Amino acid sequence: MKRIIVGLLLLVGLISVGFALDVNDTDTVNITVTVSTKTMIDVNPAALTYSNVDPGSTKNVSDEGYYAIQIENIGSHNITHIWFNNTMPSERPFATANASKYNAGNFVALRKEGATGQYWFPNRLEFNETRSLVYLKDPSGNMPPSGYSYGRFRNNSFEYFWMLDSLTNCNATGTQFYIGDKPHTENATGTTDFTQSDHQTISLTNVATAANWSWGYISSGNVSGYGVAVYYTCDRVMFVHWNKDAPGADTDSNIPYFWDASGSDPNLTPGNSTVAEIAVYVPYGVMEGTVEQGKLTVIVNDQ
User: Fold this and answer.
1) What is the tens place of the pLDDT at every residue in 89-112?
2) Which residue of 138, 143, 205, 292 is 20 to 30 Å from 113, comparing CA positions?
3) By the 8 A CB rule, do 275 and 159 touch?
4) Helices (H) and strands (E) in the chain, counts
5) Whether 158 contacts 191, CB under 8 Å
6) pTM beyond cutoff 0.85
7) Domains of the chain: which residue ranges?
8) Contacts 24+ apart (CB under 8 A), 160-165
9) Residue 270 predicted with pLDDT over 50
10) What 3-state class would DSSP assign to 78?
């Protein structure tokens, strides 16, 4: 039976060749297509999971094996800028014994493809301490601090203490923000005496476009490269690097775009892509369990 089928197939092929039609004339139709201007991106993978992350550690490969996200220009127009923002907790999560109070977006840090060294938070929100820390001394010499709001910038196993010289109206221009140079770790106390010189002092400026916030930029020390947006109630500080939408960041040229065609990057042309390497920095003191799901938003423009 198999040989018969093969023979039929060959016969059909011969018939097809034998009866080919003669071509006596041709004509053509002109096709014109105009593509509309559309700025669009596609980001993959669309979801990342990180399991069994120890407090005070960094994980830069997801459970699925991904170490980065791909940002592709699927539109028809050049992209000139890329930046990010991430979700944050709505209230102070530490010491609540509730994993759902933490937001996974607040752990996200990024760096450019092929870069070495640190990842940067687009925006990490920190809250003031509600329990006094008896080993901290404020710039006025009080220990524990008195008349100052203070907390920590949690960068995985490194924590940098910060202080504000006010308990109210921290959106006022002239508010002083202090941050230590030496990190507090599992084995080192770090900068705890703010009467000494091992800290940075930043004078904040009210943000005209977001009146409840003040803004400053850390240009020296181990935390240099971050902007700080401070809420008027003095109980929360946002550390900003890749987020041009943070209150005050849009007017500060020190805060970089992740992709900047007006700087060293070329236009991200249609069909091209770039990569952001991604990690989660889980600080000490995070309650065990699954934290609130977070989101990282990729934003582009064509200016």
Assistant:
1) 999 999 999 999 999 999 999 999
2) 292
3) no
4) 1, 17
5) no
6) yes
7) 40-122+241-303, 125-240
8) 160/184, 160/190, 160/191, 160/222, 160/223, 161/133, 161/136, 161/190, 161/191, 161/192, 162/126, 162/237, 163/138, 163/139, 163/194, 164/230, 164/234, 164/237, 165/139
9) yes
10) coil
